[in-house]
Amino acid sequence: MNFRQRLASAAPSRETVVTVGVFDGVHQGHRHLLRQVVELAGDQYIPTVVTFSNRPITVLRPGTEPSYLTSLDQRVDLIKQQGIEIVVCLDFTLKLSKVIAADFAKLLTDSLKMKGLVLGPDSALGKDRQGDLAFMKQQGEQSGFWATSVEPLEIEGKPVKSRRIREAVASGNMAVCPELLGRNHHLDGVVVLGDQRGRTLGFPTANLEVDPQILLPGDGIYATWAIIDGKRHQAATSIGIRPTFELSERLVEVYVIDFSGDLYGKTVGVEFIKKVRDQEKFDGLDALIKQINQDVDDCRQVLAESA
Question: Which residues make Cβ contacts (< 8 Å) with residue 30, sequence separation at least 6?
Fold first, then answer.
């Protein structure tokens, strides 16, 4: 289904107020924008989001493989939690990138019955970003919709942007997430069979197979909550290549504290609270086991304080 068909398939029952963007992470800045959309829609219009499954940079700069804070399904759920009633997901393609702003505006008015367009800070639509606020206001006068924009949300004197959060997560700085994301960084993965090395050390871990597009925190040991069958369990999570064993594959390994159930094949969620240490290489297994015991104690303490 191409982008025209996807827009047409939304078929809203009445007129809409629309905003457009990727909304990776659906962070506090995005929520600020979405709240404005809901408020401007009121009872008369349907608050609507058009989002893209992939970041435009993947098409505009071929070969770019960016990471994402959330999966598309998580993103849609988070957007709807803000009161948005219709979410239309488009694939950002080369063909879509060549649609000029006037034609894109016509698509939104024809397919979504758009009566209002809300642009985010520095947002522009259409080929070569022609559709800035001034241009879209002009189009609206001709096509029967109004256009407005929202000011950026700033925290600690800086605009809240997905890039800012991605950089923090990639460096292991999880402390910014509750404030900037509005929640802790979270990822899901299916538990797969590993080499069972952790079991031989006395710390059986769940090896998670994570969507390769999802951003992993920087290498190290993290105090985390493991979500298993809807229940939260204290956990110590390792991300990295396990240099003590001279391995090269980057793994996500979750040691669920005081848990003995079978997790193979289950989807486990991991909620990151704090990095307790960097990845290290140890001289032998005794030193490694001693450190793991310390890690588990440190994680218990962090999680007890955060509960």
Answer: 21, 23, 79, 120
pLDDT tens, position by position, 150-196: 999 999 999 999 999 999 999 999 999 999 999 999 999 999 987 66
Q: Structure tokens of 25?
A: 């992470």
DSSP-derived 3-state class of residue 195: coil
DSSP reduced 3-state for 267: strand
According to the model, what pLDDT value does residue 269 have? 97
pLDDT at residue 196, as a whole number: 65
Task: State both tokens at 192.
Answer: 């797969």
Q: CA–CA separation, 246 vs 201, rounded Å? A: 16
Q: Which of 220, 210, 213, 216 is nearest to 169 (CA)?
A: 216
Domains of the chain by start residue, with CATH? 3-158 (3.40.50.620), 170-306 (2.40.30.30)
Give kind and range of the element (H or E) at residue 112. Answer: helix 101-112
Give the 3-state secondary structure of residue 295: helix
Mean per-residue pLDDT of the chain: 93
Give the pLDDT confidence score for residue 195 in this predicted structure: 66
Direct distance between the N- and C-terminal alpha carbons of the chain, in angstroms, rounded to an integer: 45
Task: Identify residue 213 by its one-letter amino acid code.
Answer: Q
Retrieve residue 151's tokens.
């000011």
